From TrEMBL:
SUPFAM superfamilies: Glutathione synthetase ATP-binding domain-like. The lineage of its organism: Bacteria, Pseudomonadati, Pseudomonadota, Alphaproteobacteria, Sphingomonadales. Residues 482-492 have a biased composition (Polar residues). This is Putative circularly permuted ATP-grasp superfamily protein. It comes from the Bacteria. InterPro entries: ATP-dep_Glu-Cys_Ligase-2 (IPR051680), CP_ATPgrasp_2 (IPR025841), UCP005522 (IPR016450). Residues 460-492 are annotated as: Disordered. Residues 75-452 form the Circularly permuted ATP-grasp type domain.
Length: 492
């Protein structure tokens, strides 16, 4: 079983009685806390999340289309040295992603150099010819990135995928920390944990720094949501409220003479920077899908004219594509002149005949994914699948091999997790958030840890039964303790 040979981030390859030296205090806390107390605190967290409306959508599930995402009290912990190494790799990767997007919608030097096959770009539905030639302020395309990481050993981190369109989950990172401060204050007395509550200020600063030319002094920033029926609406409203800016829907905006305005009680107000949470297809019915009821007609004309900044930039989906992901080591090398500090997971591109043959012969051992899939859908975990499921998936891959990649089934690291039978290891992944504006990218000192709550499962997506944990980043010895946003005096 995969879990039996996985590296546990707290226990190492040992046991609860013999944890990694840095985490003996956490192991003692887990052993000394009664199951009834864990359950009581978890119920308190769930009640708070339900009251706040922190839910996610389960599409196709008529009985429970909106659910509370499960939350676990045992934190994941990153040592200060680990975090420094991760941050360096994340900054390098995000810089390469921005350079790639700027190039592929501009001079396309990477294609001229023969690094990528042209058809991988031009036949990709995520490549938007409508934005070719546009130059966003400071040549930043991916202002907010979520880079999904997995770990297989003490020093072995791999990038699983890049999220450069509208990476979600930051509200869970913030609310998980609030819950931990309230429910487990003793852990913050034991560990020196970097604060994450400055994220809204960091995001607002990033937005202001990329305002259009001539609007830098006091730009008007907004968050654009498709509306309260969207599965991430809570996050949209949470971030707008935390930043002190307006949350707007498409009907609140209009474009006149290539300038975007917001309707207010006091009249029209010019808008300079829009953090948009609407996909490209629905953003502007005059440019993309003409049947979109969610878009703002003319917003792309205003963007092309340089009168508004869109965060993240339209067209970024090409950097999310899993086939492009497989070339990221070459992309990083081409744009930075360095080897990638965070390696990819080994990836087989089914569009290549030799790789396709290997995948078809070994599908029972591999994880096979749609290049444009997300949320745990459109994928096959070979070792956990039936013969019938593998046979059906093989037919799909044979029919359209260019739509699939495959990767080995990694022994993902585990973190102790509270279960109905007590504390037990469960597999995790990690999504840190990187903000890029004018200046050096900033890595938020934390992130979203997703946990596969089912024993032995490798699928961490909330839509597939996964949950979340708080992610502690430890400060250096002797560093000043950062202020947390909530009192650590005990449960409210």
């Amino acid at each position: 079983m995969i879990g039996s040979r996985a590296f546990d981030e707290i226990w190492g390859h040992g046991s609860p009685d013999n944890p990694r030296a840095e985490f003996s205090a956490l192991s003692s806390w887990m052993q000394s806390t009664e199951s009834e107390e864990f359950e009581r605190r978890l119920q308190s967290a769930e009640a708070t999340f339900r009251q706040l409306g922190i839910t996610f959508a389960v599409y196709g599930d008529k009985e429970a289309s909106e659910r509370i995402i499960p939350f676990d009290l045992v934190p994941r912990i990153f040592l200060a040295d680990e975090w420094r190494r991760l941050s360096e790799g994340l900054i390098q990767r995000v810089r390469a992603i921005n350079a790639f997007l700027n190039d592929i919608y501009g001079k396309r030097e990477i294609l001229k150099a023969g690094i990528l096959p042209p058809e991988l770009i031009f036949r990709n539905p995520q490549f938007r010819t409508e934005v070719a030639g546009i130059r966003p302020p400071h040549q930043v395309w991916a202002h907010i990135c979520g880079i999904d990481l997995v770990r297989t050993g003490p020093d072995d981190f791999f990038v699983l995928e890049d999220n450069a369109r509208t990476p979600s989950g930051v509200s869970y990172m913030l609310e998980n920390r609030e819950a931990m401060l309230r429910l487990c204050p003793e852990l913050f007395r034991e560990f020196r944990v970097a604060a994450v509550d400055s994220y809204p200020d960091m995001l607002h600063g990033t937005m202001r720094s990329v305002a259009p030319v001539g609007r830098e002094a006091d730009p008007v920033c907004v968050v654009l949501t498709p509306g309260h029926f969207n599965s991430a609406y809570y996050e949209h409203s949470y971030l707008a409220d935390s930043m002190g800016i307006e949350l707007v829907e498409p009907a609140d905006l209009l474009v006149d003479d290539d300038v975007v305005y917001m309707r207010t009680i006091g009249g029209y107000v010019r808008v300079d920077v829009i953090y948009r949470r609407i996909d490209d297809d629905f953003l502007d019915p005059l440019v993309f899908r003409p049947d979109s009821m969610l878009g703002v007609p003319g917003i792309m004309a205003a963007y092309r004219a340089g009168n508004v900044t869109l965060i993240n930039s339209p067209g970024n989906g090409i950097a999310d594509d899993k086939a492009i992901y497989s070339y990221m080591p070459e992309i990083v090398r081409f744009y930075t002149g360095e080897e990638a500090r965070l390696p990819n997971v080994e990836t087989h591109r089914c569009r290549e005949p030799d790789a396709l043959g290997y995948v078809l012969d070994n599908m029972h051992e591999l994880v096979v994914k749609l290049v444009d899939g997300s949320g745990g859908y459109g994928m096959l975990v070979g070792p956990a699948s039936t013969r019938e499921e593998i046979a059906d998936f093989r037919k799909a891959v044979e029919a359209e091999p260019e739509r699939y990649i495959a990767q080995p089934t990694l022994a993902l690291s585990t973190v102790p997790t509270f279960t109905q039978s007590g504390i037990a290891p469960r597999h995790v992944d990690f999504r840190p958030f990187i903000l890029t504006g004018k200046g050096k990218p900033q890595v938020v000192p934390g992130g979203l840890t997703r946990v596969a709550l089912k024993e032995g499962s490798l699928v961490v997506n909330s839509s597939q039964g996964g949950g979340t944990k708080d992610s502690f980043v430890l400060l250096d010895d002797g560093a000043p303790v950062q202020r947390q946003s909530q009192s650590q005096g005990g449960e409210a």
